[in-house]
Request: fold
Amino acid sequence: MPLYSHTVGDKTKPALVFLHGFLGNHRDWLKTIDHLKDDFYCIAIDLPGHGKSVSTPTSLDSGFDECCRLIKNALNELHLQNYILIGYSLGGRIALDYARSTNDQKLRALVLESSHTGLITSSEKQSRLQHDTNWATRFATQAIVESLYQWYEQDVFSDLSCEQKDFIVNIRSHNYGVCLANMLLSTSLAKQVDALPFLQNNAQKQTPLPIYYCIGERDTKFKALSKRLADTVNIPVTEFTDVGHNIHCKNPLQYSQFIKQHFSE
Reply:
């Protein structure tokens, strides 16, 4: 099954392709897109197991490869001349792997929001796979609302109030636990190829692919990761004030202004 794509704006304008995070769908980007639709052609894709792509599965052995193939097929169907790829969290990890593995000449820039670049050691990967397997078991066997409340108790979401967590759980409760479990395991951070060598090689090219990294002021985990990126591969890091892990949902206006600043014609 092909991936669902939600498109807004003028096809003659610069194209922006958005990839949501785990548990999300294309609707997560709509408030951001609302600020951008007059200046860009906006495409928000539902990843496998999510939204209107819920019936599209991915293999546990080659989840990243399949996601990249499905995304490329979706973009080919839209006949884009070029585009900027923007990904949040899981969507950012997939976007980074897409840039690393496909060498798509139509890709003109990459924006990574709160996204990991990949684990390095086998012990880190083994620990993460066990962590994701435990979560996949919860999603596959528990009521979805119970799993969601547990998910949003993780430290990375500590900036959310109880009321905000209630709201998010309500809009995420349409998800299917088994589909989420499959996607969680097939695109586990443990199975992501470490992208640091790609980022280092890209930085050394005469005309490198422009890559931007975005973090929230309250997201301590990814602030630490961003410092390593800034130090080792010289990627520009933008810190958004008064937000945590999910920047574009908490402040779509500020996020859209960042995109306009860098990519408006």
Notes: The chain has eleven helices and seven strands. The two ends are 35 Å apart (CA to CA).
